[in-house]
Recover the amino acids of this structure.
């Protein structure tokens, strides 16, 4: 009988399950608060004075950042003992860090919901809300996040040092140094908003368009080896290619956020050029995953996980690459900057690049937790739940993306180009029927996405239950 | 038979490329960071000293640079009182901390970054909606302290909630918005016709080439 059983898991994997469980809960919170904010675009009086738009949106985007981070930390703990060949160096400390982080996240969210805002002083910034997009968590929580990241880094580096290093191990360890270090760039107050936004984009861009992408490259590399039996040498070569292209374009691609904040105009050429290169590493990831899947004739030990990894590589390419490229050229960005066009890119990129790979790991985890059961084709119910949740989540996000693109296009035309971004121009765009209808479609897309998540949760709770066949095992193929 | 892979596809080659490209990119970024931050300190040409709140600020199209740039004019003290640099910085700081504490960025954008539920605040101080310069400060103060009663939403039903902004905080926010409107943003937002430009529309007999008003006429939106 295939029930969940911790005896099927190693120490790191048990900790990973904790991280994945909280990640799913926060993913649900992300979607629910996103729905509330989407409703408010359609019905402005909804929850007015109780949970205003600035609260709902803040919880929406913070839940997203935190659940993805939980998912990544979980994925690394999942693979760590397998990749290093040894037990985790500071597993007790890792578990403690998990509970500390989770308690802190809970407190922060409760403060967001019930206290919401404070007076214009340092106390508010330290204890209520920092008021900076994506990193609104108060300063005390920032310190906690850095401490947890350092524990995590210690566990990764010390475990590989204790066991064995590999290409994936090296890239991963150095990436985590960057991950913890860059977060520090956002942890201070400055009155000059140009300087403030300069460093803020270090956190936001270099995290999500550089270090997170490399982290995702590492866990994708590991998954392909274990799902398909792909050769390590090939996988690691691709990983290095992706790192070179990712950091080669992503580090200076930061410049596309510096066009309009007061910094010198040489960022037009630097940011415009390197941003234009940013789709290239994402092409490499698509080629890599399709090549490996193809040469193995798409035989995998876990079909839902492989499907989500492929969704990841295409979603990453389209969302972060194509949609990002589309409006980071400065001549276009002058009109699209600060419109729903940016939101369209953001929704597709965050989901396509990061939610997908995390969901793949959720399926890897549940398979092993049930005792390495069969999760290929020919599932008892034909796997309808994983296929429909894959379809609904991706389709829902696409509906939102297209709706926001239409809204953003209308907004960049009416508000920016024609009306010159006056407040009257802003509302002329917001009140236009195209915009209003697009917001209804975005809300519908959000409902579809949420339905997909509901189905995903149901599937994760039931897939493999009662399965008696063992999983396919692929040893690494010989040269 | 197996053969050694060509150099360009070997793992070791790409490992070295990854290291050098990453290191090189980061070094370039560090260099550019020092240069950019030096150029955007308050008091330079790109970001004005906080005491710019004592001046009239406008935003005009510059034909030579082919974009809109802030224009600093004569004396126009905020709330009728000239502030020293230290006093101005203190007031602008109160304004910025208030903007952070009230979580404005999750409805508004500043310099185009933030949420898209409410208008961009980059040139809010210059917005023609404030009717005329002599009323601007008082309208801003009353709006911030009771936004529901002094709504600026041009219909459509969207409202700013009452955030409990005190009068002192509101004065700080006004100072911050005025100072921010003087930042050289390389022409963002494009085509913004300011409160004082709007005034001159009624009296100016002719306009220079590329005047934004001409562009608006051509679109038939006047």
């Amino acid at each position: 009988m295939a029930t969940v059983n911790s005896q099927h898991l190693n120490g790191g994997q048990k900790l990973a399950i904790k991280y994945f469980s909280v990640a799913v809960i926060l993913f649900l919170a992300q979607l629910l608060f996103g729905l509330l904010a989407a409703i408010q675009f359609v019905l402005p009086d909804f929850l007015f004075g109780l949970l205003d738009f600035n609260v709902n949106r803040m919880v929406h985007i913070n839940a997203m950042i935190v659940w993805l981070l939980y998912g990544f930390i979980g994925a690394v703990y999942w693979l760590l003992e397998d990749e290093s060949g040894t037990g985790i160096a500071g597993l007790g400390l890792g578990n403690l860090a998990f509970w500390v982080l989770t308690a802190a996240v809970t407190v922060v969210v409760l403060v967001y919901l019930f206290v919401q805002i404070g007076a214009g002083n340092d106390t508010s910034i330290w204890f209520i809300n920092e008021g900076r997009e994506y990193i609104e968590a108060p300063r005390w929580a920032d310190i906690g996040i850095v401490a947890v990241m350092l524990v995590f880094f210690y566990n990764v580096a010390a475990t590989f040092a204790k066991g064995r290093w590999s290409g994936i191990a090296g890239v991963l360890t150095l990436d985590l140094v960057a991950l913890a270090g860059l977060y520090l760039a956002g942890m201070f107050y400055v009155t000059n908003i140009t300087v403030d936004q300069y460093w803020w984009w270090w956190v936001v861009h270099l995290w999500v368009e550089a270090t997170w992408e490399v982290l995702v490259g590492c866990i994708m590399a590991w998954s392909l080896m274990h799902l398909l039996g792909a050769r390590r040498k090939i996988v690691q070569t691709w990983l290095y290619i992706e790192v070179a292209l990712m950091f080669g374009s992503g580090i200076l691609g930061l410049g596309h956020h510096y066009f309009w904040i007061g910094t010198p105009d040489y960022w037009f050429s630097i940011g415009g050029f390197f941003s234009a290169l940013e789709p290239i590493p994402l092409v490499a990831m698509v080629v890599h995953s399709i090549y490996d899947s193809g040469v193995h004739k798409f035989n995998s030990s876990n079909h839902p996980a492989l499907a989500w990894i492929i969704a990841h590589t295409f979603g990453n390419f389209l969302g972060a690459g194509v949609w990002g490229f589309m409006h980071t050229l400065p001549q276009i960005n002058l009109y699209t900057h600060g419109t729903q066009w940016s939101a369209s890119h953001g929704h597709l990129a965050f989901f396509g690049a990061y939610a997908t790979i995390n969901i793949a790991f959720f399926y890897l985890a549940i398979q092993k937790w049930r005792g390495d059961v069969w999760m290929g084709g020919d599932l008892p119910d034909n796997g309808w739940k994983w296929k429909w949740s894959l379809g609904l989540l991706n389709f829902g996000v696409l509906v939102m993306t297209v709706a926001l693109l239409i809204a953003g296009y209308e907004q960049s035309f009416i508000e920016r180009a024609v009306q010159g971004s006056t407040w009257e121009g802003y509302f002329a765009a917001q009140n236009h029927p195209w915009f209003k209808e697009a917001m209804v479609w975005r809300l519908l897309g959000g409902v579809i996405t949420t339905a997909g998540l509901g189905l995903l949760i149901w599937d994760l709770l039931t897939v493999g239950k009662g399965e008696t066949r063992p999983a396919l095992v692929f040893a690494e193929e010989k040269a | 038979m197996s053969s050694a892979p060509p150099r360009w596809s070997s793992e070791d080659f790409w490992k070295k490329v990854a290291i050098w490209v990453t290191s090189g990119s980061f070094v370039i970024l560090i260099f550019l960071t020092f240069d950019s931050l030096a150029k955007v300190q308050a008091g330079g040409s790109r970001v004005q000293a906080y005491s710019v709140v004592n001046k009239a600020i406008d935003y005009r199209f510059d034909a030579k640079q082919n974009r809109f740039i802030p224009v600093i004019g004569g004396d126009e003290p905020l709330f009728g009182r000239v502030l020293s640099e230290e006093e101005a910085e203190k007031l602008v700081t109160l304004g910025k901390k208030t903007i952070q504490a009230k979580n404005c960025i999750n409805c508004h954008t500043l310099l185009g970054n933030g949420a898209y539920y409410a208008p961009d605040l980059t040139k809010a101080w210059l917005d023609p909606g404030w009717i005329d310069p002599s009323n601007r400060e008082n309208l801003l103060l009353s709006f911030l302290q009771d936004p529901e009663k002094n709504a600026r939403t041009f219909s459509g039903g969207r409202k700013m909630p009452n955030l409990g902004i005190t009068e002192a905080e509101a004065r700080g926010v006004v100072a911050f918005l005025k100072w921010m409107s003087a930042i050289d943003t390389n022409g963002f937002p494009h085509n913004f016709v300011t409160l004082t430009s709007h005034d001159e529309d009624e009296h100016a007999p002719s306009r220079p080439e590329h005047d934004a008003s001409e562009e608006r006429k051509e679109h038939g939106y006047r």
